[in-house]
Design goal:
Radius of gyration: 23 Å
CATH superfamily of the largest domain: Glycogen Phosphorylase B
Shape: globular
Largest sheet: 7 strands, parallel
Structural class: alpha/beta
Helix content: 25-40%
Number of domains: 2
Number of helices: 17
Strand order of the largest sheet: 3-2-1-4-5-6-7
CATH architecture of the largest domain: 3-Layer(aba) Sandwich
Number of strands: 13
Oligomer: single chain
């Protein structure tokens, strides 16, 4: 079968979460189905196409067009304009779109929908982005697909409820975790941490800095938690709980998105701003080390279609605190502490319980009841064990096989 895949979104300098999904899925599908031919299509100027990743599999062909993407978008919107397959040397049997895009085709196609945040939370998008979704005719693009792939049952539910999509045409294909995300320190870890000037214990949050990721709540909760450390008893419990002689800092990792002034304002007014570090974009090669050495991973996002960072953190043996909204309960199961992303005190309480080893006999301020602390094994160790087991269930091989099954249904 000749399968065309749209990779126009892989021409950016930094790989996004959707970009990572696309790359790993293509690699695994080519390996899993050597009898299929995969034609990858991208467009743009030479400097734009220079950002494309390399694919080594013998059954992968890359076709590029030097038409700037803005011009291509205009052509595809003309009443009698070209189809995407007109830019290919060989006519494919089917198109696979790993992400929403502006397109036109006369062939059957399969589309992956990662989330409907543009529909549910338009305020989290710039005016330019909202216009793009209208120009892309997103809802029509979704409804006319031969099959849809949803990265979670949560996204499938949203497709059915919001866009009235027939549930029988939707297949749920969870994402996978790369083998690089593993438990146990590697010799290279110290070098990677040194590159980011990290020589202190820390809590970690990692995502694009944008409103939907709710970084402000992480800063506020951390500051409130630190304010309670004026109690020497509580300080002792936290140090023993985290196995450190000093209190963890907060590291905020991730590239700058948009409307970050809220983060800057909250940070400016925190009494502990000297212990809160914005380290910017982190390349994939450094992420496992950053996860592995974190005392906990905080991911209080308002909404996710899947939420791959929480799986990556769990695979590295790091306890996770995340939201109970969107796909998060489906992804983490019982392997994480789930909180209300709209309630700063909920995240603060989770930090207290994760950092105190004494469970229901905790002597933290105000005699906070340990609702997160199970009997016996301390919570942190229990979450690490559960997280490792949970993360092992999500493999790219399975994602690729399910995707191929859906593609091969089209004759």
């Amino acid at each position: 079968m000749i399968i065309a895949i749209d990779i126009r979104h892989l021409t950016t300098p930094r790989t996004s979460g959707v970009g990572h999904y696309t790359i790993r899925l293509i690699e695994e599908m080519a390996k899993t189905s050597p009898e299929d031919v995969f034609i990858l299509f991208a467009a743009g100027r030479r400097r734009t196409l220079a950002h494309l990743p390399e694919f080594d599999a013998p059954n992968i062909r890359v076709t590029t067009s030097h038409i700037p993407n803005r011009f291509l978008f205009a052509l595809l919107r003309l009443p009698f304009g070209p189809t995407l397959e007109n830019f290919l040397k060989v006519k494919p049997d089917v198109w696979f779109f790993p992400n929403l895009n502006i397109t036109r085709t006369k062939l059957p196609y399969i589309l992956t929908v990662h989330d409907l945040s543009f529909k549910l939370f338009p305020k989290f998008y710039t005016f330019k982005d909202r216009v793009w979704y209208k120009v892309a005719r997103t809802e029509r693009f979704i409804n006319e697909a031969t099959h849809l792939l949803a990265v979670s049952n949560s996204t499938k539910y949203d497709l059915v409820e919001l866009l009235k999509v027939d549930p029988n045409k939707i297949l749920v294909t969870h994402l996978g975790v790369d083998n690089e995300y593993s438990h146990g320190e590697l010799p290279s870890d110290k070098n990677y941490l040194h590159k980011h000037k990290i020589d202190y214990p820390y809590l970690l949050t990692l995502s694009t800095l944008e409103p939907r990721k709710n970084i402000e709540t992480a800063i506020e909760a951390y500051s409130a938690w630190r304010a309670k450390l004026g109690s020497s008893t509580f300080q002792g419990e936290v140090r023993r709980g985290f196995g450190q002689t000093s209190i963890p800092h907060l590291i905020i990792a991730g590239g700058k998105g948009w409307r970050t002034h809220g983060i800057n304002e909250v940070l400016k007014h925190s009494k502990f701003k000297d212990d809160i570090h914005l380290i910017g974009y982190v390349i994939d090669k450094h992420k496992p080390a950053l996860y592995r050495h974190a005392k906990a991973f905080l991911f209080p996002s308002f909404y996710e279609g899947f939420g791959l960072p929480v799986l990556e953190a769990m695979a590295c043996g790091t306890p996770v605190i995340t939201s109970f909204t969107g796909s998060m309960p489906e992804v983490v199961g019982d392997a994480a502490i789930m909180i209300d992303p709209f309630d700063v005190s909920d995240l603060e309480l989770a930090l207290e319980q994760l950092s105190c080893r004494r469970g229901r006999s905790c002597t933290c301020p105000n005699e906070v009841e340990s609702k997160w602390q199970p009997q016996g094994l301390p919570l942190r160790e229990k979450l690490i064990a559960r997280g490792l087991k949970r993360a092992s269930r999500f493999r790219w091989e399975q994602t690729a096989q399910l995707t191929l099954d859906a593609i091969h249904q089209i004759k």
